[in-house]
Amino acid sequence: MLQFLLARTVQIPIVLLGVSVLVFGMLHLSGDPVHYMLGSDATADQIHQLRAEFGLDRPLYTQFAQFLGQLASGNFGISIRFRQPALGLVLDRLPATLTLTLAAMAIAVMTAIPLGVLAAVRRGTAYDHALMASTLVSQSMPSFWLGIMLILVFPVKLGVLYTGGWSGFRDWGHLVLPSLTLASFISARLIRLVRSSVTETLRQEYMRTAEAKGLAGHRAVLKHGLRNALIPITTLVGMDLGLLLGGATVTETIFAYPGMGQLVLQSVIARDYPIVQATVLVVAALYSAVTLMVDATYVVLDPRVRRG
Amino acid sequence: MGSPSRLEGAGRLLDAAAAGTPASGAFHHGGAISLRRLAKNWKGVAGGAILGLVVVVIVGAPLWWPEDPLKVTLRDTLMPPLSQGAAGYHLLGTDPLGRDLLARVISGGRVSLLIGFLAVAVSAPLGLVAGVVSGFFGGRLDSILMRVVDTQAAIPFILLAVAFVAVLGPSARNVVIVLGIAGWITFGRVARAEALVLRECEYVEAARALGASAARIIAVHLLPGAVSSAIVIGTFSVGQMIVLESTLSFFGLGVQPPTASWGNIMSAGRPYLDTAPWITTFPGVALLVTVLGVNLVGEWLGGASSPHAR
Fewest Cβ atoms closer than 10 Å to its Cβ: which of A16, A102, A141, A243? Predict the structure, then answer.
């Protein structure tokens, strides 16, 4: 088991190295990064200065080695717009994004598990059909549109909650609409997975045994059914964290929520590549860490992994 | 990651492949059409009907709604739905430049659908070939390709697309490239899994024993086997790509005005949410209905191959 987790841990730097190659390669894909960063109306002096500043006059492999060296020492470049270290700017926004992401995750999990378990138990009923139909509809709309529609209904028409912004942790009202929007991003898929995996475990032999032992229906479902269904659910929740971090980009921008996602979209428009690069790397690192945690929870949830 | 139900669909297919059932079961129906069968296939029927309607509305637009989506009429700005303007009748109202909203939703739909299909046309062959080759040869090639997949999977789809557009610049062509590159990994993973199963099949071993080259085995025996799963994933992908295109265009990173796309129409309407909510509402509804149709067809194709769904 330790070996398994160790092997997974070793993979993280490999993935991060891959991501650095990707972000480095992407910038050079555009041809000359200096043109990209300065735009078309840059003077020859500016181009020359920036090229020297970034060492762009040297061969590509030297540049890459230098780039990796800088990353290793925590230097992710200087934001062109803010003239400050890019990593610091991104990390400053991290708590807001994590708050939003975790709130959305909590909403999604807390609604998906009861709804999905009930659908599995009452398979084929009107409730089941209605729930499945609504998940299909919610999977078919872009989350930015849902966000706008929520803004239209609540703050604009009904005058409740906020169209956007954030006032720190003093007022949680700002978090309601963004986290609902973001939760919808994953809850439909989660509901369907809970339903199908609980259905699957309900068919297993041990469920019949539990029933034969006289364990009442709902207790058998909760004790055996749900626990075994938790393995695929945990996997999906872990994978969805990456999806949520991506979805936060959209949601934060719609609600003017000052997180990492909003920063990265503004930076794309402002041609501030160091910020884009730092965000991609931070998100990839977070995602890898979560994947490792998911692997570790298997060990807790499934004794077979422990032995295997 | 990917379209919400795509993984589930892929999982089902893997089950089907492992159990030896043909994943393309949806295509092998015989016998008379009965109400019961129709009821069982309601998703396919409903999805097909929705998509058929969308295509008829969009393609047939010159016949029934010949308004010009680019014609600016400043006397008719922000007119509500069902109003008679100086330059004609506006069923869905007008936008901030007095352009007919229905005409823009129709022409935007043409762009969005086309980009959705093209993006999948780029990502599906890329992923299929990479996945099958990787699964067939195994070894170092396989582990390198799988690390590439892991790397790409560690970056959320939308963030990757945004980063690519940041560098390439926003345009319809770049959206297709970006979505195509961002989307190949799902096809790659499933095609690889299929190839791993098929590689061990007797007919593949027989072909190998007869001296067939690796290229021939891949092209003749493995790729066709992976295609049926790719069709299901590809269907969901089209829906997902339409959503992503609209997201990119909404943020000004996709199709550029004055060319209409559902995303940039909604974006143009956003400052007028208070006074002219129809501008953001209608393109969203059009998108929702279209993607719902696509997803229903995908569910039907995927479900027909799964023993659980029966």
Answer: A102
User: Judged by CB atoms within 8 Å, which residues 257-296 of A form the interface with B?
Assistant: 264-265, 267-269, 271, 273, 276-277, 279-280, 283-284, 287-288, 291
User: Could you say which residues from 110 to 169 on chain A have a Cβ atom under 8 Å away from some Cβ of chain B?
Assistant: 136-137, 139-145, 148-149, 151-152, 156
What is the C-alpha to C-alpha distance for residues B289 and B47, in angstroms, rounded to an integer?
A: 10
Encoded tokens for A220: 């058998």
* Domain spans of chain B, in order of start: 101-309
Q: What is the pLDDT of residues B2-52, one digit of tens each?
A: 343 434 444 444 443 333 334 444 444 444 556 666 667 888 899 999 999
Quick one: how far is CA B175 from the chain centroid?
Answer: 13
A 45-64 near B (Cβ less than 8 A): none
Enter the CATH code of domain B101-309: 1.10.3720.10
Which of B1, B5, B167 minimises the CB distance to A192?
B5
Cβ <8 Å between B154 and A15: yes
A15 touching B (Cβ < 8 Å): yes
Longest dimension (CA), chain B: 77
ipTM of this predicted structure: 0.86
Q: Which of B251, B262, B294 to mutate to probe the A interface, most A CBs <10 Å? A: B251
Crossing angle of helices A260-269/B157-168, nearest 10°?
20
For chain A, give the mean pLDDT.
83
Owner of token pair 């509500």? B80
A35/A37 Cα distance (integer angstroms): 5
**Structural element, H or E, at residue B196:** helix B172-199
Q: Nearest C-alpha of chain A: how many angstroms from B216?
A: 32
What is the tens place of the pLDDT at every residue in A249-285?
A: 899 999 999 999 999 988 888 878 889 889 999 999 9
Calculate the CA A155 to chain-centre distance: 27
- Per residue in A152-168, pLDDT tens? 999 888 888 887 777 76
DSSP string, B108-173: HHHHHHHHHHHHHHHHHHHHHHHHHHHHHH-HHHHHHHHHHHHHHHTS-HHHHHHHHHHHH-S-HH
